[in-house]
Design goal:
The chain has about 550 residues and is α/β, with parallel strands linked by helices. It has three domains: about 280 residues, Rossmann fold; about 120 residues, Roll (Luciferase, domain 3), CATH 2.30.38; about 90 residues, GMP Synthetase, Chain A, domain 3 (2-Layer Sandwich). Strands 1, 2, 10, 11, 12, 13, 14, 15, 16, 17, 18, 19, 20 and 21 form a 14-stranded mixed sheet that branches. Helix 2 crosses helix 3 and helix 9 crosses helix 10. The chain is globular, with a radius of gyration of 24 Å.
């Protein structure tokens, strides 16, 4: 078993098809599948000559590019385990990864070189590689000529041989280290192939780098978005438009923050003038995931790309994908239900995964059960609880077992993952997400979760962001707006959310978001902000405080 065997197969079937396209328009580079296979072979020789073997660990500090995927595939073909740090994790997170995982080598670009002066743990890594020009003390990854160079064999590895090591976001507790084996990646590839309907010869605009691996295995061209992947919410729209105009991708896999920036750009007068005389681009399929996808965003997408098939993909680091929803199945009654607190619809579970909603016991370990005992914990259709999943592409455990007690349990020797999300299954077997289990508001006989309130607020077109928290056992909703609502609009908004029993609705210029996706509300930071605001606001009427409008219901 070796996940890179798919590249060998695809390079034989589609040798002259572009595999990867990267860089700014007019300065971009691309590799066909045949060229990528050759480049992978050259890099594999370099890694082997430097002494790396199938039990080595290679830290990758390379931005999404042709080089990143070539190095990744070369290492995996030799059984080397690759460590992929979180793009938005920062220096502190990187130092912790080095201290815990002890990589044998690091591949780095010049832009990351100053980190070696700042982080002692990084400087202690014995081997350094550079994908471009040689950096001081590093081994260039293009040291071998292809002429007469025999191709190294792809190692046949056990299914459980580690392939990728990545940190989780830590939203369900202490950040954990996920280890994906070659067998796991193969199961995930099959799930993504089915869920995303990957077809050889298509061009996919990629802003979620993990999906590019599935593309490479399916013969799909990956057009790597010209953006900073650690700051997708700051994407420069006109650069992406230029890529789309040049290559006409017929599919997109992206985060809500990324697509929001594109839509904002398309709707601006400047961008309309810039692209009014060019051939229009219309992706046939759009997949959105990585953060909550609200109905207002879906409506904008359908207006801008009326002929595209738009799909919501729900999953996590440990289980990707879990569910998928074609937007045409998101009916008007479903959207109205969200305003009444139903949460966010994410669709039916994908093939190969089992989803159950059990009694919410988040914060407490779940001991090993029999399947009959698990069935007794399951909530009937329509009732809220904790979402747990099981299947071949669901991670069975974390590195060294750290985090397993919190997130894993067995039922009749079958491993289950606790997602940390609350939800419910409706009568049609569709999954609705209600929010984080850790964000359950128990200040009332009828508890609710944060996303129930946030989804209801986000159903109003003038609301840009929404975050629900509790302070001193009182429910607060913070929102940022696209425009100032009329008084009548705000009254309708308040009446629609009467069921949420809010103590106050606070409008802020913007709400803090997570560093990883730039789309999920950072509730801990939001709580700190609101505590400061409310500590200085003692009145119950509408007022303005440091340009922050505070409205108390």
């Amino acid at each position: 078993m070796n996940i890179t065997l798919h590249l060998k197969r695809v390079a034989q079937e589609y040798p002259d098809t572009a595999a990867l396209i990267s860089g700014r328009v007019h300065r971009e580079r691309q590799l066909t599948f045949r060229q990528l296979e050759t480049m992978v072979s050259l890099i594999a020789h370099t890694l082997a000559s430097a002494g790396l073997h199938k039990n080595s660990r290679l830290l990758l500090l390379v931005r999404p590019s042709l080089e990143l995927y070539a190095i990744l595939l070369a290492a995996l073909s030799r059984g080397i385990t690759c460590i992929l740090p979180d793009a938005g994790g920062g220096a502190k997170s990187l130092a912790a990864i080095c201290q815990r995982l002890h990589p044998n080598a690091v591949a780095t670009e010049g832009v990351a070189w100053p980190l070696f002066l700042l982080l002692r743990a990084l400087a202690r890594i014995p081997l350094r590689f550079s994908p471009g020009g040689a950096l001081v003390g590093s081994i260039p990854l293009h040291t071998h000529r292809s002429n007469g160079l025999r191709q190294l064999p792809i190692f046949d590895l056990p299914d459980n041989h580690p392939a990728l090591i990545t940190p989780t976001s830590g939203t369900t507790g202490v950040p954990k280290i996920a280890v994906r084996s070659h067998g796991f990646l193969e199961a995930q590839r099959r799930a993504l192939q089915s869920c995303l309907d990957l077809q050889a010869g298509e061009i996919d605009l990629v802003s979620l780098p993990v999906f590019a691996l599935a593309n490479l295995a399916a013969g799909v061209t990956s057009l790597i978005a010209d953006t900073n992947f650690s700051r997708l919410g700051k994407t420069t729209a006109h650069r992406i438009f230029a890529q789309m105009q040049r290559h006409h991708p017929n599919r997109m896999a992206c985060s809500p923050a990324f697509i929001q920036r594109l839509l904002d750009g398309l709707e601006s007068s400047e961008q309309r003038r810039r692209f009014s005389n060019t051939q229009p681009f219309t992706p046939r399929r759009i997949y959105i995931g990585g953060a909550p996808v609200f109905p207002t965003l879906l409506r904008r997408l359908q207006t801008r790309f009326p002929e595209a098939s738009v799909n919501i993909v729900y999953g996590s680091t440990e289980a990707e994908p879990v569910a998928c929803l074609p937007v045409e199945e998101y009916s008007a009654p479903d959207r109205e239900a969200a305003t009444r607190g139903a949460g966010l619809l994410v669709g039916k579970p994908v093939a190969g995964i089992e989803v159950r909603v059990i009694k919410d016991r988040w914060g407490h370990s779940v001991n090993d059960l029999t399947d009959a005992e698990l069935s007794r914990l399951a909530r009937p259709a329509g009732q809220a609880g904790e979402i747990v999943v099981s299947g071949p592409h669901v991670l069975g455990g974390y590195l060294d077992g750290v985090g397993d007690d919190e997130n894993k349990f067995c039922a009749d020797d079958r491993r289950w993952h606790r997602t940390g999300d609350a939800g419910r299954l409706d009568e049609q077997g569709r999954l609705w997400i209600l929010g984080r289990c850790s964000r359950r508001f128990d200040d009332d006989p009828n508890p609710v979760y944060n996303l129930q309130i946030e989804a209801a607020a986000m159903n109003f077109d003038w609301v840009h962001q929404a975050g629900a928290i509790t302070i001193n056992h009182k429910r607060y909703l913070a929102i940022s707006t696209k425009r100032r609502p009329e008084s009548a609009e705000f009254r309708v908004f308040r009446l629609a959310l009467v069921w949420a029993k809010l103590f106050a609705i606070v409008t802020l210029p913007s709400l803090p978001v997570d560093r990883r996706h730039n789309a999920k509300i950072d509730h801990i930071s939001l709580e700190r902000t609101l505590r400061r605001v409310m500590a200085r606001h003692k009145q119950t009427n509408v007022t303005v405080l440091n340009n922050t409008k505070v409205k108390v219901v």
